[in-house]
Amino acid sequence: MTSAFRRDYKRNSAITDSETSTNTRLQVIFTDVLQSLLGIIRRHQVTWEEYRAATAWLTEAGAQGYEIPLMLDVFLSQTVDDVNFGAQGGTESNVEGPFYVPDAQLLERPYVLTQREGEAGERLMFSGTVSSTDGSPLAGAMVDVWQASAAGEYSNFHPTCPEGNLRGRFTTDDLGRFELETIVPPSYGIPDGGATAKLLAGLGRHLIRPGHIHFKLSHPTCRSLTTQIYFEGDPYIDADVVGAVKDSLIVGLVRSDDAATRCSYDFVLASRNEA
Ligand SMILES: [Fe+2]
What distance in Å separates the CA atoms of residue 165 and residue 171, rounded to the nearest whole number? Predict the structure, then answer.
């Protein structure tokens, strides 16, 4: 390591604020992580070849830009979400994922999620309510929605999907109700071809997430909620690559011959005074 590199590394590191500061929480957590890894090496008698394969994989992942955050999201993010929001009360939270974009278009009634002309996909009327854990309907709750297209692509990230597509914000009515027209999102794969996909292949695991719609809900009297809604019957509902599906977040789809498919979900936000 050159001295110039060492100086740049220190300047860019968020781990310590200065050369003399110590981050106690980092010390505690890193010590636990290290002890766990050392225990694994001893328990499995990790060989030099395996150790070098691991360092080569990390080098490859680091050179691929987004692969290390992707790998952490796949294996760790839902647990981070659980420990931060699991005891909040109300509707269960779920990971935000990498495709959220703030300040999506504000929709006007009747709410139709922003979409291109002739948007492909099965039409879906998603209705529901937003209330507080004390049972009060939340009028004017802000609902921020984003989802993949029928091709499994997110706008603002996939170049073939128009900016702002299948994203939007709207508010509930005086009784906390809403209805949104959109499409049924498909199951889709996380990025293929990178170090994370290679690791999953080595583990004998697929890359697919079941179809879902992302929601962020907020109201001045309650704690904000970030979650996802999944759909009964999705072939990957029990095999999410991210392991994020929760039974309480699965809804049934009601199909009919002469109208859009329907589903509903009643969101509950935790009151601010709850533990
Ligand atoms: Fe997603």
Answer: 19
